[in-house]
Amino acid sequence: MLSTEVVIIGGGATGAGILRDLSMRGIQAILVERGDLGCGTSSRFHGLLHSGARYAVKDKHAAVECIEENTILRRIGKHCVEPINSIFIRTKEDDESYEEKWLKACLDAGISTKALSLNELFSLEPNVSRNVQSAYMCPGAAIDSFRLLWQIFDSAKRYGGKTITYHNVVSIDSSSGRVHGVTIEDVRTHERKKIACSYLISAAGPWCGEIAAKAGLSLKVIPSKGSLIAFNHRICHNVIHRLHKPADADIFVPHGTVTILGTTSINSSPDDNSTSQEEVKSMLEIGKATFENIYDYRILRVFAGCRPLYSADENVSGRNASRDFVAIDHEKDGLSGFMSVCGGKFTTHRLMAQKVCDIVAPKLGCQKHCQTAEIPLIEEPSSDLINRAKKVFPSYSSRLCQDRQGPERFAKILSNIEQNPNQGELICECENVTKAEIESVALEPTTHSISDVRRRTRLGMGTCQGTFCTYRAVGTVKRLKCDWAEDTSSLFKEFLEARWKGIRPVMWGNQMRDVELARGIYEVSLNINHEGEKDE
Amino acid sequence: MSKSVVIIGGGISGLFAACICAKRGFKTTVLSYGQGALAAAGGIIDVFGYDEKGKLIHDPLEHINSLPSSHPYGKIGAENVEAALNTFLKLSAEAKYPYKGDVHKNQMVPTGIGTFKPTCLTPPTIDGDLINHADRIVVLGFKGLKDYFADLICENLRRNLPKSSCEILSTEILLNFESSSACRDISALDIARKLDTHVGYLNFREQIKSYVKGKTLFILPPVLSASPSTDLLDLLDIEINAKFIEVSAMPPSVTGYRTELMLKNIAEKLGVEIIEKAHVFASEVKDKHCSYVMTQGFDRIRKYSADHFILASGGVFGNGLVTQMGRMYEPIFNIEIDVPKNQQEWSHQYLFTGRPQPFATYGIETDNTLRPTNKGQLLLDNVYVVGRALAGYDFCFEKSGNGVAICSAYHAASLLE
Ligand SMILES: Cc1cc2nc3c(=O)[nH]c(=O)nc-3n(C[C@H](O)[C@H](O)[C@H](O)COP(=O)(O)OP(=O)(O)OC[C@H]3O[C@@H](n4cnc5c(N)ncnc54)[C@H](O)[C@@H]3O)c2cc1C
Ligand SMILES: Cc1cc2nc3c(=O)[nH]c(=O)nc-3n(C[C@H](O)[C@H](O)[C@H](O)COP(=O)(O)OP(=O)(O)OC[C@H]3O[C@@H](n4cnc5c(N)ncnc54)[C@H](O)[C@@H]3O)c2cc1C
User: Any idea which ligand is nearest the CA of A468?
Assistant: First the structure.
């Protein structure tokens, strides 16, 4: 039987942060995730590294945490952060009196606000509505969640932290009021295993309620669903916020080659990540105040995630529930050795982990302090490596690969291409992913599908949404003879269906042309639907 | 003076309609803008591959007989379908790029992933029958060709041809291209152009010669010439005594490109005027009768009048139909397509579900003469709709794209008076 000091349930930002923190303190820990790392809320989110300005008026405490963590993450996770700014604009529709309150609150929280003249604004952001009355620049930024998560796990691994993915925690084992382990089930083979532990931390986000129930406890988590729209291009260079009381569809975050508009807030169930036409319609209508030509921009896809909002009060919901996080020691419920951590934000995951570990570590006899804020997640690649890479990587893919893969994998990918230039071929042109990078990720033990490859490389996340690169990705991974890549037809379907899910609700205009092309290629030319024998 | 036809769209349906119109003595003009689906699709003519349950159909013509009149084939009628396809076979033979096939029989042709797909008429480079007569199959790849995986095809062929006793292997050969790996990717079209040169051909022949043992069939990407001609095939047949079959593969489609060239050559020989870069943006219609359409080229707006018009502007892919949230319309004659307001109803939850997708069947409703109607009422009396723009069929699911295009083009062109 596996055994460890701490088991963590959930491979999102919260769980990842806790695993790294415990590992750095020298505490043995295993994290169990039922899907791929980051497949929950931590990737179905807006990707905004908050400056705190959005929360300044209502919740100074949260605002201060955000700006502090923002500064830390820009330092320790620099390869995951696009170092841009947030611009808050007040349009004619927004309450003028809020502006003053907001400026004062930001000052109090230590968040810088630089006033921009309209001329400055329009030269920075030419697409923004001419209805803007005033604009300020704050230190918000865009953050790549998959990249950050993967780098946190890599870092934790260096300190001995372990992760088990594609395993569901099916039961919590306890006796005489004390947790002593969990039972996990392999989601593919349904094989069950036990892990013994001295302490259990549930960081299952919106599923925290379900996990607590497995131990016979009740925990009120309000899963509040938010939808997001991804546009085909960068319509802004910086994050654009409306300067008003936080509301729906008032933030645009540019990410790499796309821009994401969000969000909404609807009470739902944690597994619900559906989106409706009504939501898209209403978000576009609100978004119009920020970008007048919003209806001309091509939508790539829509997606949704569930916020894990904790409430001690049964009657609170959605935007009114606190965005703060809670760590509940279930000893108060009569079960010791078990803590649930939920709520909070992606931006503040590190701080949440620190607070949790400050409580848990002493219980396990460890007096070490948190070091997660000081030590960068990955090391910088050497200048020699960078210079060699510039010679062989196509276009600007060397920098992207470096940021995505970290120095060790990057070095391996580079020497692969140096030895065989064909390995530098771009499989995904939209996101600049080379064959060597795909192969490196496909061979990782945590990879079980092309979607897993996507989460670590951004394969298929650009304009073509997989239309051209799926074929190449399948051809490439088949060659590696991985155990998960046996059946060609399933490989195609798994990836194309996952892409389809986000396209389906917005299938009009150019997106529909693309669907026809994709069906023409995969259904007609390659006939993936009928992998039968020649003579039926 | 002979009567005139203006055809909007230069895809397979527009070009084939033009050939038939010209043959029938009409003064024929094709207004064409942009590339048709042939540039991405294969030059193989699917007629009907799978029924609505996804079951393989052996005799496409027989199946067409059973289709309702909501399906384009139901309107065209099996007799006309047969005549259309036979006319296509005949024209291609006259153009020395003879298509092969039988309207009563589907052939199974290999794909770029080593599966087989049913199709009806095939160009000379894709003769599905050859698979049955080979002792040895060599799946040939080209180093540096991105969208092709010889080993993947080989592996799946072995699985999909279990009863066959023939030996199946794969290999890659190297042709030298000036554009090294640092430059542009190499596509099948680049290789096809290379093989059209004498040096390229010799290089190719020498590299594959040693693989020929017994009845050898090479399976390869669509590279056997960039033009609609069998010269290369014939030469290889004589010089190394082997057979070749091209797979249906990723865009750009060399086989589609050849078919387009073939049809353009035939049309031009028949006196059709093909005007490229002519974007039709509006029409003049009075009392359901169209008198002219207007184009916007790079110079100025022009009017084209005619006795008849054939709308061959394709579906959403060709921009013949335009969609917005909850709306689809045809932009030249402003025909609104009756589609659900709620996008949810446009499609199934999964893309590959084993049944036709609703959105794929959205298109222009017509009567049996292919003239547009709205709830049974004729909208235009001298405009005929052909090809992908027609409602009532999912070409991807049933495998019928080029078949419907050719048969509807033939039907419309034959109806003109
Ligand atoms: C629409 C939206 C937009 C947002 N935008 C932002 C933003 O811009 N900036 C920001 O800072 N924050 C944002 N947030 C908040 C942020 O995304 C979340 O607070 C954060 O991602 C939560 O991380 P987590 O690790 O707690 O939960 P999750 O990421 O959901 O992780 C929980 C994990 O537990 C796993 N799990 C569940 N049950 C089991 C089981 N039985 N066994 C094993 N594993 C299990 C799940 O698969 C999941 O991966 C947004 C949230 C939403 C919904
Ligand atoms: C990837 C793919 C693979 C396919 N594979 C096969 C296959 O293997 N076998 C098969 O049988 N079918 C296949 N098909 C289907 C088949 O290609 C199409 O159904 C067929 O080509 C449609 O022909 P069309 O002439 O109606 O339309 P298109 O080929 O779309 O032609 C329409 C033409 O009209 C032009 N046009 C549009 N609007 C205007 C305007 N306003 N003014 C002037 N010109 C205009 C367009 O630019 C275009 O050139 C495939 C399709 C795709 C997308």
Answer: 2
